[in-house]
Design goal:
Length: about 110
């Protein structure tokens, strides 16, 4: 199922329900039938998501260093949190600049 995040400040952001639920949990929200991140909450929400992305990137580097193999250039890197979260993070940042809310619904 796809979840649509909407704001007057940005184009809509679509994502799969599992990812939306995960990202919202990081920022302290739940994927209910409908939800909102108010413009007053945005600085805190942005900070929490940026911190989670930074921690994920550090963990990925540590993992790669521990698991170097003979074929070090031939293994695939799965998409990290940063790649999955940046469209949503960009939306949060722009909504914050324009003092806009973000809403979603199932």
């Amino acid at each position: 199922m796809l979840i649509t995040f909407q704001s007057n400040a940005t184009p809509n952001v679509l994502m799969l329900k599992d990812l939306a639920s995960y990202l919202l949990a990081i920022v302290g929200k739940r994927l209910n039938t409908r939800g909102v991140i108010t413009h007053g909450e945005l600085p805190h929400v942005i900070n929490r998501l940026e911190t989670a992305i930074s921690e994920d990137e550090k963990a990925a580097v540590e993992h790669d260093e521990l698991h170097r193999s003979v074929h070090s250039g031939h293994h695939e890197h799965p998409a990290g949190l940063s790649q999955r979260a940046y469209p949503f993070l960009d939306m949060l940042r722009e909504a914050n600049k324009q003092n806009a809310d973000i809403i979603w619904g199932l």
